[in-house]
Design goal:
356 residues; mainly beta; 12-stranded mixed sheet; 30% strand
């Protein structure tokens, strides 16, 4: 019953934008049995300020919001989507500035955020280590942490830039089924050496970064599995493990300094145009000369298979690429032209997806 109630709250915010019942944006704060709706450009900021230190849920309508400032509370945040997609009837929730999660001496936030486009970066910082952050179906520029992080999960997201460690220990990082426009940077180090104990998995992603030189081109030594990787001089740095990635196999080997097994050499598929079902000759996020997002379906998905038995790239794995967020989706709306005084008959058809 609680999940259904939260879905109804989210639906109200979605209707406000999709049906144009209201010209403004809303942020709905659910705190136990108390529900408060905030309106306007600063609605997200106001909802965050009013949220308890732990246990609050904020649902954002489609539209643009000011940056709420650093998040130092344990919260679940749901937007309407990270990209406008008419085919899937997805609207965009856009937040200016960074997504910043900050620990204090007194509070270590646990944050789950879904379905939001952030204009700038995703940052984890603070006074002590931050654990169990989840960013799902979001978009942001760079990701970096200037404080120790544990078990950060980023999945089904549009990462427009790179992943940077900022010389900070990072353990249990999971990036799954994401489009990554930049590098997995070798900045994950301390005192000019790779941070002892840093660990992470890059799984079923598209790594679209192109680098044709030799200096600083290798990625941090994480575990790379089932990805599609654009050109780089040495794709996986010394100490990496690389399994069932589609790319230039000789580039994965890094001179024998890493573990490279069953990667798919360019000789097997010739070029991106023949590898991908849409016939595009690159790994860009959008179909050329359009604003239509790509699906990255393989032309021969049973040929280029990951070590988990599903197709390499974002269409395989446990969380296949899907930009539709958990909040309810409006399928149709109508307003009866014939009304009686004081009565407005509105019909709304929606697909309910209860919040987790």
């Amino acid at each position: 019953m609680k999940k259904l109630f939260l879905s109804i709250i989210a639906l109200v915010g979605t209707v406000s934008a999709s049906a144009q019942i209201s010209d403004g944006v809303t942020a709905t704060l659910q705190n136990g049995k108390t529900t408060t709706v905030f309106y306007g450009f600063d609605a997200f900021k106001d909802a965050l300020a009013a949220a308890p230190d732990a246990g609050g849920i904020i649902t954002l309508s489609p539209g643009a919001f000011s940056n709420p400032g650093a998040i130092s509370k344990t919260l679940k945040i749901y937007g309407a989507g990270f990209i406008k997609d008419a085919v899937n009837n997805i609207s965009e929730t856009r937040v200016n500035g960074n997504l910043t999660i900050t620990s204090t001496d007194a509070l270590v936030p646990v944050v789950r955020i879904e379905g939001v486009y952030f204009v700038n970066d995703f940052v984890i910082e603070g006074a002590q280590a931050v654990a169990n952050t989840e960013v799902i179906k979001c978009s942001f520029a760079e990701f970096y942490n200037s404080v120790e992080t544990n078990n950060t999960i980023i999945r089904q997201s549009y990462i427009r830039g790179s992943l940077h460690g900022r010389s900070t220990l990072t353990t249990g990082l999971v990036v799954a089924n994401c489009w990554i426009g930049g590098r997995i940077s070798s900045n994950y180090y301390t005192d000019d050496k790779f941070a002892t104990g840093s660990s992470g998995t890059i799984n079923h992603c598209i790594i679209a970064y192109y680098y044709g030189g030799s200096y600083g081109s290798d990625y941090f030594p994480f575990d790379y599995r089932n990805n599609i990787v654009n050109y780089c001089s040495n794709c996986c740095g010394a100490g990496s493990t690389c399994y069932n990635n589609v790319g230039w196999e000789s580039r994965f080997s890094c001179g024998g300094q890493n573990t490279s097994v069953n990667n798919y050499d360019v000789a097997l598929w010739t070029d991106w145009k023949t590898l991908l079902a849409d016939g595009q000759d690159n790994l860009d996020f959008y179909i050329k000369d359009t604003t239509t997002p790509r699906t990255w379906v393989l032309a021969e998905p049973t040929t280029y298979v990951g070590n988990d038995g599903t197709p390499c790239g974002v269409t395989g794995g446990d969380f296949p690429w899907n930009p539709i967020p958990a909040t309810p989706r409006i399928l149709s709306t109508s307003v009866d032209a014939k009304t009686t005084p004081g009565t407005l008959k509105v019909s709304i058809k929606a697909e309910a997806r209860p919040l987790e």
